[in-house]
Amino acid sequence: MVRILIIKTSSLGDIVHCLPVINDIKYFVPESSIDWLVEECFADVPRLHPGVDSVITISLRTWKKNLRKKSTWIGLYKSIKAIRENHYDIIIDFQGLLKSAFFTLFTRGDIHGFDKTSIREGAASYFYKFTHTVSKQIHAVVRNRELASKCFQYELLDQSAHFGLEIHNINNFNLSERYVVLIHGSSKKSKQWPKEHWLKVIQFFNGLGLRVLLPWGNLEEYHFSKALRKASTNSLVLPKMNISDLANVISGAKCIIGVDSGLTHLGNALGIPTIGLYMDSNPYLTGVYPNIKVPSVNLGEIGVTPTPESTISQIEAII
C-alpha cells in the first residue's frame, strides 16, 4: 500500500481543480491510500470524493487573525500532531506557496512539488526533496495532473478530467420544482456580472418555468440576491449554507450559471451543466474545465464581459 498525502489547502476553486488527480492516482497506483490536508472551511469538498481516505484540517485563516488566543496554538498543535501521525511514501504540495510548504516541515516522507520556475512563490520549492517543472501556461487542472504524473512517473493517457465527487443521499431541502442556481458572488468586484445582465437571464428562466436559486456568502452578496429576488416572483434567496449543504442543492440543479467563483467550479465537478462568466481572469488557465459527464462553457475573458444574449444562447444549447 502506497501512502500519499496531498496538500491543497485553499481556495475552493483551486481545490476543485485538484480533484482529478485523485482518479489519476487511483488508476495508475491502485494500491494506494490518499490523505488530504486542507483548510477546515473547505474540508467538505475532498470528503465528497470516495478516493480520499482521510482529511486533515488546518485553520490557517482563523489562526492568523487570532495569534494571541490560546485556542489558536492548541489548534495548530493538534493539526501538526495529525500531520505527523503517519509516515507517507509521497507527499505532494500542489499549492506551491510558502504557507503550504511550511506544513511540509511536519510531514514524514519524501516531499514533492513544483520547481521554483513553475510557481509564483519560488522559495516554496526549497522545502521539497523532489521538484518538477510544469508549465504555467496551461490550465490549473492540467498543471495538477502533470505534477502528479511526474511524481509517480506515469504518463497521462488522455486529457479527460474525472472529478469523482459523489453525493449519495441528495437533500435539496424540499425544492420540488425544477431549478437552476445562479452564482453571482465573487471575491473581486471586477469579476462580478452586472445586475441588469442577471435580470435578463432570470427572465429567460422564468419563461422556461425554472425556479432560480440565489446563494450568498456575505452580507453584500445577500443584499444583491435580495435585489434580484425583487425583480422575479420565481426566484428564491437561499439561507446561509455550508459547502456540504450547497453541494446538495447544486447537485439537483438543471444547470449552473456563475462568475469566476469556487461554487461555479464545484457545480461543474458535481456533473451539472455549467456556464462560467469571465471578466477579469483568464478562462484558459482557471476557467470551468470540461467534465466528461456534462457540457460546460466559458464565456468572456479579461476585459471582455459576456452579454446576456450570448449567455442565453449557451443556456439553450446545454439544457
Features:
319 residues, alpha/beta, six-stranded parallel beta sheet, 13 helices, globular
Helix and strand topology:
Blueprint: E1 2-7, H1 12-18, H2 20-28, E2 32-39, H3 44-47, E3 54-58, H4 60-65, H5 70-84, E4 87-93, H6 98-104, E5 108-114, E6 130-132, H7 140-152, E7 179-183, H8 195-208, E8 211-214, H9 219-230, E9 235-237, H10 243-250, E10 256-259, H11 262-269, E11 274-278, H12 283-286, E12 296-300, H13 308-318
Parallel strand pairs: 1-2, 1-4, 2-3, 4-5, 5-6, 7-8, 7-10, 8-9, 10-11, 11-12
Helix segment tally: 13
What is the alpha-carbon Rg in Å? Answer: 20 Å
The dominant shape is globular
DSSP strand content:
15-25%
Instruction: Specify the structural class.
Output: alpha/beta
Numbering strands along the chain, what is their spatial order in the largest sheet?
Answer: 3-2-1-4-5-6
Q: What is the terminal separation in angstroms? A: 43 Å
DSSP, total strands: 12
Low-confidence stretches: none
Helix residue percentage = 25-40%
Largest sheet: 6 strands, parallel
Average residue pLDDT:
94
Write down the secondary-structure element order: EHHEHEHHEHEEHEHEHEHEHEHEH
